[in-house]
Specification:
This protein has 24 helices and 15 strands. With about 525 residues, it is mainly alpha-helical.
């Protein structure tokens, strides 16, 4: 009798129960499956009815008795069904993606899922590995191209079982190789690319911050869209293991230099100075230049790598070449008067556009900016003029002779011979010679003389001695309006002639040609100076 009852339970009641459930699938309403799933027995049924439950679940494993919304809605076998764990915060969204991909994803009560597992019929959980393999095989889901946020969350799920802290050569680190072929690399231009092997020819660049992203706007197709990634995703794309096993490449200074050079007008390369129409004709905007220099502050290696490109902004509306050795740009917008600034421009020097470069503490110019401009000092101005004229001041002298007015020359000379420079620490011997070599000095005899050329000794002109008759001074004597000016010329190395020498060289040889009244005046003055 016991065996009979057992055979009845196993062979008749259990299969009948299974067929009943299968029959009910024809009647169940997909929008309300709660009543249908309530008919399934749980794992807490006492003996001998537990025997029925065990055999029921054994038979039901190959029957289409679980509802899935796949393909518009159909019933699937428990052994084929997939279940998305509710622990993933975007489980509903992930289910929809998988259903669209033709995967038999089901939603069942938690108690039924536990009972299935208890009777050796567990639903196959969807895992990151499963999703990765599915997407590598089937390609990117269409919904991702329509809704970028879905794609980003899908990528987040695909890396959720990976550890960004893993060393590249460890078992955990090498799991990043499973991302190869995954078509979920979000790019800065809004498209998607596929993660490839490390040695793939096309690299996906990983930028480190917003400034890099804006600087490289012109090459967005090669850059991962880091600004939209969560902090967790950023940890993954910037980790060594992912870089070692995919074609992600951290943006290095060298790579950044190459990319910046590729988006600048190619005709600019090597130019000393270019006229700049910001934001037009493919030229960078003011904001782009501002961000680039802000970036240089922390990454001087990038500035060094871009040496030779005109990237120093000037108030004259141009960009000048980045050069630590030869820069025509002076950081002196608040130092020079309008007249001196105009003269410097005519002579080839330029003034830094201070609004487009960063400022440090106390409004000081950062070191990286100072490296590419001249300081508003005597030496800095002379170096800027040399740099603007092929390393020589001779062209400067020619421009001063031809294109600079007498008043402009005097104002420029006043700057060059300002008291703050007339000290050994502020005026080197070479700078002193350069000042005297420029045709900006008044001399007696004419209104404005071109005092020296580079082939003439700088001692040709002298300072007149005290007591000399001004009307009798010739072009051999520098004209100084004040004693301070005379002292400055003395500092610069201009010698002072004695009164005896002046009479001997300037008066006696010209007595016959002098106006009688001036000659008499000179003789009386000489007699007064006799001991």
């Amino acid at each position: 009798r016991v065996e009979w009852n057992k055979a009845l339970l196993e062979g008749i009641i259990a299969p009948t129960y299974a067929r009943l459930l299968l029959r009910l699938t024809k009647l169940a309403v997909p929008s309300n499956l709660r009543r249908y799933y309530a008919l399934w027995p749980w794992d807490s049924v006492p003996e001998p009815w537990a025997l029925v439950v065990r055999h029921l679940y054994a038979v039901a494993g190959d029957l289409p008795v679980l509802y899935s919304e796949v393909d518009g809605g159909r019933w699937v076998c428990p052994r084929d069904a997939r279940y998305v764990p509710e622990t993933w915060r975007h489980a509903t969204e992930l289910r929809k993606v998988l259903l669209d991909a033709g995967q038999p994803v089901v939603e069942v009560p938690a108690r039924l899922r536990r009972t299935l597992a208890a009777f050796s019929l567990p639903l196959a959980d969807v895992t990151p590995t499963y999703v990765r393999e599915l997407l590598v095989q089937n390609g990117r889901p269409p919904v991702v191209d329509k809704d970028r946020a879905v794609g980003l969350r899908l990528l987040e799920y695909c890396v959720s079982d990976l550890r960004s802290s893993s060393e590249p050569n460890t078992e955990a680190g090498m799991k990043y190789a499973q991302l190869q072929g995954l078509p979920l690399a979000p790019m800065s231009d809004g498209t998607w690319q596929t993660f490839q092997k490390r040695d793939h020819e096309e690299k996906l660049l990983v930028v480190n911050g917003e400034d890099e992203g804006m600087i490289l706007e012109g090459v967005n197709a090669k850059m991962l869209d880091c600004k939209e990634l969560t902090a967790g995703l950023l940890d993954h794309v910037r980790c060594e293991a992912m870089a070692a096993h995919t074609n992600l490449e951290p943006l290095t200074s060298a790579t950044l230099c190459v990319l910046i050079a590729s988006i600048l007008p190619q005709e600019w390369k090597g130019e000393e100075e270019v006229m700049w129409t910001a934001g037009k004709n493919g030229q960078p905007t003011e904001e782009w230049i501002r961000r680039l220099w802000k970036y240089f502050v922390g990454k001087k290696a990038v500035a060094v790598g871009l040496g030779g490109w005109p990237l120093v902004p000037t108030l004259e509306g141009s960009l000048c070449k980045l050069s630590e050795q030869q820069s025509r740009v002076i950081d002196g917008a608040t130092t020079f008067g309008i007249g001196v600034g105009r003269t410097l421009h005519k002579l080839g020097a330029r003034i830094l556009h201070f609004d487009l470069v960063p400022k440090g503490a106390d409004n000081a110019t950062p070191d990286v900016v100072r490296a590419y401009v001249q300081q508003p000092t005597l030496h800095g101005v002379l170096e800027a003029l040399r740099s603007a004229n092929g390393g020589s001041l001779e062209p400067v002298a020619e421009i001063l002779q031809k294109d600079i007015t007498a008043s402009e020359k005097r104002e420029f000379r006043a700057f060059l011979m300002d008291s703050q420079w007339m000290w050994p620490s502020n005026c080197a011997e070479a700078d002193a010679k350069a000042i005297l070599a420029l045709p900006v000095h008044d001399v007696h005899g004419i209104d404005f003389s071109f005092t020296f050329s580079f082939s003439t000794a700088i001692t040709t002109q002298k300072r007149a001695p005290a007591g000399a008759t001004v009307e009798l001074l010739t072009q051999d004597y520098i004209k100084a309006e004040t004693q301070v000016d005379l002292d400055h010329y003395k500092f610069l190395g201009v010698p002072t002639e004695t009164l005896a020498q002046w009479y001997d060289t300037c008066i006696f040889p010209r007595l016959d040609a002098l106006d009688p009244k001036l000659c008499e005046k000179a003789m009386l003055a000489m007699l007064r100076h006799l001991p």
